[in-house]
Amino acid sequence: xxxxxxxxxxxxxxxxxxxxxxxxxxxxxxxxxxxxxxxxxxxxxxxxxxxxxxxxxxxxxxxxxxxxxxxxxxxxxxxxxxxxxxxxxxxxxxxxxxxxxxxxxxxxxxxxxxxxxxxxxxxxxxxxxxxxxxxxxxxxxxxxxxxxxxxxxxxxxxxxxxxxxxxxxxxxxxxxxxxxxxxxxxxxxxxxxxxxxxxxxxxxxxxxxxxxxxxxxxxxxxxxxxxxxxxxxxxxxxxxxxxxxxxxxxxxxxxxxxxxxxxxxxxxxxxxxxxxxxxxxxxxxxxxxxxx
Length: 292
Known about the structure:
This protein is an alpha+beta fold. 34% of the residues lie in helices and 18% in strands. The chain has helices at residues 6-17, 22-34, 36-55, 63-73, 105-140, 246-251, and strands at 172-178, 184-191, 197-201, 210-217, 225-229, 235-238, 253-260, 275-278, 280-283.
């Protein structure tokens, strides 16, 4: 492609905008007919500016507008007969010495070039503003855009992972905490997999200003270990057995003492156990399903 001056590019842009006069349009069309590269430049400008046409719909002028146009050009009433003016007398001009001719072609050329680039800059700014408006509309209200320029909806696939659930039920252990073989006061349930325990109050009567506290007593430990105060509700659940091994948990004796309100202050029992019991296996672990 041959190099083109800024004047040629500005002419192509103004031709696409439709702001040239008749002589300039004829000049551009002549250049397009003999120069395919220049015609390609004009086509490129027309493609860039065509987005403005998509945003502007056709508007039919009102009837009074047509009446005003007819009145302005003198067609609202019958035209008067054409009268030719009388020719003025012929005056022989006085012959003077030719004045020095000043070459103003450069001034005219620079003025036209400045006008063209000013028009191109104005319309380019308008295009940029229109594109920004289209992008904003496409993001917030895409339904207002024509079908040809409306962005396609994006489908985003989100993967949601749920925590794995053990397919094999764990063993469950139960201890009935009672006094001298009497009626149950508490029922202790321990999950074999998580080592979480739940204490259910059955027949123990609370004492005013006192608290029931649960203890783990084992030959493997030097002293009883507190498992916490049993709450005032029907169920108390805690995960504190996780620090002990399975053998210690399964063979230990579980005891309940009556302590001051809020439990033992120093981690040692301050009264003899009132209710005791040992764990027994209530639900065995399920056997793994055979491989298929």
